[in-house]
Amino acid sequence: RKEIRSPRKAIMAVSETQACPASFTMNDGIEHPARGFGTYKVGFVPASATSAAPKDDRDPVEIIKDAVAVGYRYFDCAQFYGNEGIIGQALAQSGVDRKELYLVSKCWNDTIYAGADAIRAQVKQTLRDLQVEYIDLYLVHWPVPGKHIEAYQTLEQLREEGLLRSIGISNYTIEDYAELKPHIKVKPVVNQIEVNPFLYRKVTIDYFASEGILTEAYRVLRQGKSMQDEVVSSIAAAHKCTSGQILTQWCLQHSIIVIAKSSKRERMEENFKAMDFQLAAEEMEQLDALTTPEALSAYEELYKKCVVRDTPLAALQEGVKDKVTLN
């Protein structure tokens, strides 16, 4: 039987030999690729999307096929993204063997609110859309008040049935997990949240690591909004690389799985390129310090909105926690 190591120990073991680890060991003993390709707004923009940014203007099938050609095998998908059929079509056309792929998906709030039968039906729809017989990792997208515990328990059952290899959570605060923990048999392998130097919630990340739960990070590159930041730019210049590569390396050195996305082939190659350096402790501290109180307040507002988005709870903010750990 393969030894199951904690996320921190697994990362330290691999970081000693290479600056850019290929994978991390999850608490169920399965390896999780270190870097993945995000599929949000590839060919489709959800009606209730937080940002008004348009979908990519390139053929979405070609975007995914380019990502495969660059070397990506881990694709982050979701019911909410509305494009799993496109992703499945592109991956089928790519010719990559299923065993080489690592596919992640998530059930959306309306399905979580509807309950176990809706979740089961959605998982089966995702299997059809992605044209696969199992999903490597499936997550509860948001901890919908009064509903997320049943949702996770349903994922436990689907894992037992072999439709899901691993299961986890997304956008959970410490308080949300404390609510879930007493009611589950299978510990989540990951918590997928937004992480970058401008939203570095160290207390939360360290808490989940202490529970043996890895962090998957989305918006690592902040949609390009911070590439000209003085601190990031100066560190990038020192290492003769791009700002995006610095943001990626910062995550990896914090033992955090990276989800990056671009519709441009050259950017994909840049994001996927393995780094041959490690950031110095002083550089890590400089980047760690970029999170402001205003950023944490903005996160709190977004959390309270998104946790009930597209459910009947949204009108009155029913069940939304008054206080959660922000940092």
- Measured as a percent range, the helix fraction is 40-55%
Q: Numbering strands along the chain, what is their spatial order in the largest sheet?
A: 3-4-5-6-7-8-9-10
Which class best fits the helix and strand makeup?
alpha/beta
Mean pLDDT: 91
Strand content: 5-15%
Terminal Cα separation, in Å? 37 Å
SS element count, helices: 13
How many strands appear in the DSSP assignment?
10
Rg value: 19 Å
Strand and helix order: HEEEHEHEHHEHEHEHEHHEHHH
Low-confidence stretches: 1-17
Shape: globular
Summarize the biggest pleated sheet. 8 strands, parallel, barrel
Summarize the structure.
The chain is of the alpha/beta class. The protein is built from 13 helices and 10 strands.
List keywords for this structure.
about 15% strand; alpha/beta; eight-stranded parallel β-barrel; about 325 residues; disordered N terminus; 13 helices; two-stranded antiparallel ribbon
Tell me about this structure.
α2 (60-70) packs across α3, α3 (84-94) packs parallel to α5 and α9 (230-239) crosses α10. Residues 1-17 have low confidence and may be disordered. The two termini are 37 Å apart. This protein has helices spanning 7-15, 60-70, 84-94, 109-114, 116-130, 148-160, 174-180, 202-210, 230-239, 243-253, 265-272, 281-288, 293-306, and strands spanning 23-25, 31-33, 35-38, 74-76, 102-107, 135-140, 164-170, 190-194, 214-218, 256-260. It is 40% helix and 14% strand. The strands form two sheets. It has an eight-stranded parallel β-barrel with strand order 3-4-5-6-7-8-9-10, surrounded by five helices. It has a two-stranded antiparallel sheet with strand order 1-2. It is of the alpha/beta class and 327 residues long. The protein is globular. It has 13 helices and ten strands.
